[in-house]
Specification:
The chain is of the alpha/beta class. The chain has a domain at 37-142: Vaccinia Virus protein VP39 (Rossmann fold). The protein contains 8 helices and 7 strands, in the order αααβαβαβαβαβαββ. The chain has a 7-stranded mixed sheet, with helices on both faces. Helix 7 packs parallel to helix 8 (155-162). The structure holds S-adenosylmethionine.
């Protein structure tokens, strides 16, 4: 089965955790990553990696002494990510609010970047609030949380946590077109 068809079928089975029916386009994936300082950042976290549409581009750009920790709760995609067997990739089958515990398991305290494609608006509010809070705490000072969304409904929530340190971009070449928030942890 092609990867797009498999994504579509998993999405239909798990509408309450997917929030879309197609993986991110290469245009969206690349735009998510284009401001990242891959040369100096050491620790990357990806939340909701799915079939690895964005993961592949992160791995392509990682410097040799950096690592990427991917969070994915869907069994099929978790196994698909594991099968990549990339030496700099750690895949955890754990929900995103466990970010700090999972970093600690790797003897890490903080991450430089969090790249998220979690469907935050359909995740129960108590959990999505926790994910945002824990993500903020897990970032190094001046670290960045990057999130895409198909509407601007989550902007207010992000502002509450990251204040004014948010920049917004738009990618038309995706189905559906998407907004990208880059939220900096300013101390
Ligand atoms: C919109 S898809 C994004 C997939 C891929 N990153 C992309 O951009 O094409 C959202 C993914 O988040 C995963 N997910 C949903 N809730 C999650 C949670 N609480 N923790 C970790 N992953 C979650 C889903 O299983 C799904 O694979």
């Amino acid at each position: 089965m092609s990867s797009r068809i498999k994504f579509f079928s998993e999405a239909l089975k798990n509408m309450n955790t997917f929030g879309t029916v197609a993986p991110s386009s290469r245009f969206l994936s690349k735009r998510m990553l284009r401001k990242i300082d891959f040369k100096n950042a050491k620790v990357f976290v990806e939340l909701g990696s799915g079939n690895g549409a964005i993961t592949a581009y992160i791995l392509e750009k990682l410097s040799p002494d950096s690592i990427l920790i991917c969070f994915e709760i869907n069994d099929y995609f978790y196994n698909q990510l594991i099968a990549l067997k990339h030496p700099q990739l750690i895949v955890v089958k754990s929900s995103a609010e466990n970010i700090k515990e999972e970093l600690n398991k790797q003897n890490l305290n903080k991450t430089d970047y969090i790249i998220s494609s979690l469907p935050l608006t359909i995740i129960p509010e108590n959990i999505s609030n926790l994910i945002l809070k824990k993500s903020f705490e897990a970032l190094v000072d001046n670290g960045t949380f990057i999130q895409y969304q198909y509407s601007l409904t989550y902007f207010k929530k992000l502002k509450r946590v990251f204040k004014e340190a948010i920049t917004l971009e738009f990618e038309l070449l995706n189905f559906p077109p998407a907004f990208i928030y880059s939220c900096k942890k300013v101390r």
